[in-house]
Amino acid sequence: MARCCGSKDGQAVRETVRRGYARIAERGGSCCGPKRQSSCCGSSRPDRLARRLGYSEGELAALPEGANLGLSCGNPAALAALRPGEVVLDLGSGGGFDVFVAAQQVGKKGRVIGVDMTPEMVGKARRNAAAFAERTGLANVEFRLGEIEHLPVADASVDAVISNCVINLSPDKPQVWREVARVLRPGGRAAVSDLALVRPLPAAVRESAAALVGCVAGAALVTETEKMARAAGLVEIELDPRPGHVEAMFPESAGLHRRTLKHLPKGRKLSDYVVSLYVSARKPR
To answer: Taking the domain 10-282, which CATH number applies?
Structure first.
């Protein structure tokens, strides 16, 4: 089983992540301090990061204030090529950023479900949903409290599963991929952007709680990610590593980047180890 934090058991990892992201939800910004500080989880300028990841001005304009927390490492809704009328599930939906983006793409006849294990995030997302409906006229989203290893979603009930920089936080990644396969309809597809390793991180980085909440310590190797998706029964798996996204997420001024560099060999940088990995896959018909 892919583990994300050395000797810590799975429940301890979940509690570390839950506490970290509860603080993000309450502060409305980074996991390192007040809004607009350099973030250890992503960008202190969320809209700038989102544009670099390919989100359009129209998509961003429709978002409620505070939905974009700067925690993205990719654009899974674009990767999924969502179509009007589809049912979409977002794993680790946070403040609702990708749910609201997907909701615009599937339209009034579609539906988007967000699942997050942090009550503070679910509460924030539900408040954002009211503002989103008022702004767009769309009432096609819902948010459920739950763990991505045990999704509160029926078997074979969604057309597409998306996730943005979340699976790396799970202490049981193979189970997450099994759940993805379970909830997809035959022929349904998964579109994930996640942090992944091209080489193992030093032990000191893997054991860091700050690095874990910042999504780095929990990342699996690229090759492991493919194996987990395939073992879950998914097919047509395509992997697209994008190291440039990591440099956009974790600028050299960011707290996590500075702390991580202390534990890396001289001359190495974070993107020599970590990439943003786009994963697309399909459930067999």
So the answer is: 3.40.50.150
